[in-house]
Amino acid sequence: MAFDLRKIEPLGSKNVLFDQAGLRQKERAEIVGSGGRFDMDDMVASELEWLNEDKDAIKSLVVQMDASIGQLAKQIREIETQSLRSRKKIESEQHLLFKQIKTLNNLLKNQINIYSSVKNQVSSIELKQSQFMPQIGIGIMAGLMSAITILATAPWITVLMETLNN
Question: 94-107, pLDDT tens digit by residue?
Answer without folding.
Answer: 999 999 999 999 99
